[in-house]
Amino acid sequence: MSDQPIEERILSAIQTALSGIDGRVPLHEPHFSGNESAYVQDCLDSSFVSSIGKYVDRFEHMLAEYTGVQRAVAVVNGTSALHAALTIAGVGQNDEVLVPALTFVATANAVTYTGAVPHFVDCEEKTLGVDPLKLENYLKKVTRKGVDGCENKFSGRRIRAIVATHIFGHPVDLDPIEALCRRFGLVLIEDAAEAIGSFYKGSHVGNRGFLSVLSFNGNKTITTGGGGAILANDEALGDLAKHITTTAKVPHPWAYIHDRVGYNYRMPDINAALGCGQMEQLPSFIYKKRALAHRYAEAFSDVQGVRFFKEPEFADSNYWLNAILLDDSVQGYREDVLELTNQNGIMTRPVWTLMHKLSMFRECPSMDLATSESIERRLINIPSSPML
Length: 388
Ligand SMILES: *Cc1c(COP(=O)(O)O)cnc(C)c1O
Prior knowledge:
Blueprint: H1 6-17, H2 36-46, H3 54-67, E1 71-75, H4 78-88, E2 95-100, H5 105-113, E3 117-121, H6 132-142, E4 143-146, E5 149-152, E6 158-165, H7 174-184, E7 187-191, E8 199-200, E9 203-204, E10 211-215, E11 228-232, H8 235-244, H9 269-300, E12 306-308, E13 315-316, E14 322-326, H10 334-343, E15 349-350, H11 370-378, E16 379-382
Parallel strand pairs: 2-3, 2-6, 6-7, 7-10
Antiparallel strand pairs: 1-11, 4-5, 8-9, 8-13, 10-11, 12-14, 14-16, 15-16
Helix pairs in contact: 1-9, 1-10, 2-9, 3-9, 4-5, 6-7
Bound molecules: pyridoxal-5'-phosphate (PLP).
């Protein structure tokens, strides 16, 4: 067995976990078998498909109830949710925001929309997210207390916030990150775009951030076609998030008064109708995704040189995208694994190119990124749809 090439052993472990499924297996496929079409049809019948209608309110209430936050504000996508959250956090020109090097590009893009500069930080292998200890030691070295808060000694810019991404749905270690934010005077934003249905020490992710964001893009755990949400644990902040994402219009029966530069980031009602149907199915999606992860864990348990990524001990993860990590000794076979699995109709993907390697972010400040670089060489995402 073990003198079989590693790519063949990986292919057969995936096939074992997916036993009985034939045809092409995508990485993550949406599934609509509940009330989605009825709600969307109802929305069409009412003719309130756009910015007025009942489904946005209903979707927001369902999100707040499920995640346990006080307020959820539905918006057009996760990227705009991040942009609005950073704006509300006071991030702007001449600020820096700490962002993981290992994340989806939207996290760093949203920072630049505010005029601020992303400052890339390393991750830990246990969570794939921000490494709090390494970050603390780094901040001790490169920052000083400025008049305006935490200041980067080298660039002279204020470091205003950190965006912590829950990578592939696995919660980052929020307790030490929160402590670090208090110590250095940073605002915490949770990028929970991939993490609806994931829990940190018993509470849903997105409860610790000053604001947090979700995404309902087509490849996420639940989808509204395209969509996102801002989560707030404070009524006033929730109101502000709603205000700024709906053109900052002052309520008035007829006059158009806008009290700041706002954004047209509101989620259309027709997308929210789809979201209500998906929310009803979320618990069953999570159950199925966790069962699939369990089957992968079993199938990979005796494949030498490969580790199936499991949730950290403090977390109950949604396992949005399942991942395997090659050992250092076999990391050179990553392309062979990608090639053989994709040839056999099983969609697999490498992790995103690290942010500091993308042309537009190459000049941004960053700390030592050894763990992110190692994970980039070794990680492969494997099929994760709830219906598998
Ligand atoms: C999907 C995603 C986003 C952006 O969400 P969109 O709805 O696609 O704009 C942001 N951050 C992370 C980590 C994501 O995976």
